Amino acid sequence: MEEKYLNINIKLKRSNEIKLIEYKYKKRTHDERPMALDVLLQAQEEQYDDLAFRYGCRARNCGVCTIEVNSRPKLACRARVREGDTLSAIVTLPVIKDLIVKRDGITRQMKGYNNIPKKNDLNEDANKLYHNLTACIECYACLDGCPVHAKNNITDIQKNDAYKYGNPYSFLKIQRLLIDPLTPDSEKHTLIDKAKRLGLEIYRREYNSLKIKCGVGINLKDEVIKPLLDAAYGDEFEKDNK
Ligand code: SF4
Ligand code: FES
Questions:
Q1: Per-residue pLDDT tens digits for 57-103
Q2: Quick one: which of 29, 41, 123, 199 has the most CB atoms within 10 Å?
Q3: Is 84 in the pocket of ligand 2 (CB under 6 A)?
Q4: CB contact at 8 A, 140 and 106
């Protein structure tokens, strides 16, 4: 017979201290396999009313619910949990409270990067590659394992400056604009310069061992990093990877 409960660990960070909650999730049906978000909502409702976590759409659209399940970044609204799993905040951004991380450093990093007067809001005349990149929901799961983002000092939570180094998400924004049919050629060198300032060179050195994964399945290595490296370093990059 199926158990009525699932034991799930919830690891919290509050005032720089780590706290471990061992929560007994009450299954709503005998065969339920809940999402991580279901566990957090029930824990908050039943026992820990001050438990802090973020969610929005509950449908893999808004990207704000990213947490770690057993130390891997996942969307809490789409990650099914099992007996003994551990939920915690993502380690790639500073924790504000419990499972909530400070995300605005990433947004600020890209402030002003798009100076093109006519924005392609309707994705006019765009090809399939461009449309693939519009699937990004800003969940920041791809910061995990990124050697460029790893160079940022994220420990100072008060720091409001944009991080100096980029991440797959910021490079995706640049690459999408580069292949946008409305981007004039005259703007393309500015975009490539921005990518270089964000540390694109690091991917060039570590391309073959690069392990980054997108939360919604975008092929970041082939559809973002490789074409950007080609655009920025051209033949030199091809030569380095033969
Ligand atoms: S590229 Fe993928 S993993 Fe990164 S922010 Fe966008 S959706 Fe999330
Ligand atoms: S709540 Fe919107 S993606 Fe999970």
A1: 999 999 999 999 999 999 999 999 999 999 999 999 999 999 999 99
A2: 199
A3: no
A4: yes
Rounded distance between C-alpha atoms, residue 114 and residue 111, angstroms = 8
Domain around 42? 5-101
Do 89 and 123 fall into the same domain? no
- Encode pLDDT of 42-55 as tens digits: 999 999 999 999 99
Are the CB atoms for 35 and 5 separated by under 8 Å?
no
CA of 36 to the centre of ligand 1 (A): 19
Do residue 116 and residue 75 come from a single domain? no
Same domain membership, residue 162 and residue 117: yes
CATH of the domain at 23: 3.10.20.30
The alpha carbon of 207 and the centre of ligand 2 are apart by a number of angstroms equal to 30
Task: List, for the chain, all residue ranges whose pLDDT scores fall below the cut of 70.
Answer: 1-2, 122-124, 157-158, 160, 235, 237-242
- Closest ligand 2 atom to 139 CA: 3
Give me 119's structure tokens.
Answer: 């924005």
| Strand-strand pairing, 95-97 and 100-101 | antiparallel
For a mutational test of ligand 1's pocket, the pick from 143, 146, 218, 223, i.e. the residue with the most ligand atoms closer than 8 A to its C-beta, is 218
Q: Residue 56 C-alpha to ligand 2 middle, in angstroms?
A: 5
- Distance, CA of 134 to CA of 140 (rounded, Å): 15
CA of 22 from ligand 1 middle (Å) equals 30
